[in-house]
Amino acid sequence: MAVCRLCKAETEPYDSGVSVCVRCLEAQGTKRNPPASEREVLNVLKQDLQAATERSKAATAAFDAVTNDVPSGIPHPDGIRRIHNASRQVTIARMEMLRAHHRLNDFLNAGVVPEDLKRSG
Fold it and tell me: What distance in Å separates the CA atoms of residue 87 and residue 19, rounded to the nearest whole number?
């Protein structure tokens, strides 16, 4: 059994072959409990970058597998659609990774805490 990259709970590989539990994956799309310190913000941003990098690597590996399978017996339109879908997943994963890089760089260079990690009140 795999271990979630974010909360370390046991899970199955869920998101593009990356071990992230459903709860953590859903939490990435919603507001989290804000970190209490700058060190916690840094840790969250590093974890986000690591998870995004792993998703990007998994999407790239899936794309490579699809393109290496082109000379198969797959009907032409289906083969094109599979390549297009895999390419779109790579693009999305790389955009997420770039966003995670920017958030971490903004925090390290200018001390900018992303809005979703700010404490209210």
Answer: 21
Residues 6 or more apart whose Cβ sits within 8 Å of residue 98 = none
111: left (phi over 0), alpha (psi -120 to 50) or beta: left
The structural domains of the chain, with segments of one domain joined by +, span 2-114
| Residue 111 phi, psi (nearest 5) | 75, 20
Contact between 2 and 10 (Cβ < 8 Å): yes
Predicted confidence band of residue 77 (pLDDT cuts 50, 70, 90): confident
**Which residues, including other chains, have CB under 8 Å from residue 116's CB and lie 6 or more apart?**
31, 32
- What pLDDT digit, counting tens, does each position of 27-66 carry? 555 455 667 688 999 999 999 999 999 999 999 999 999 8
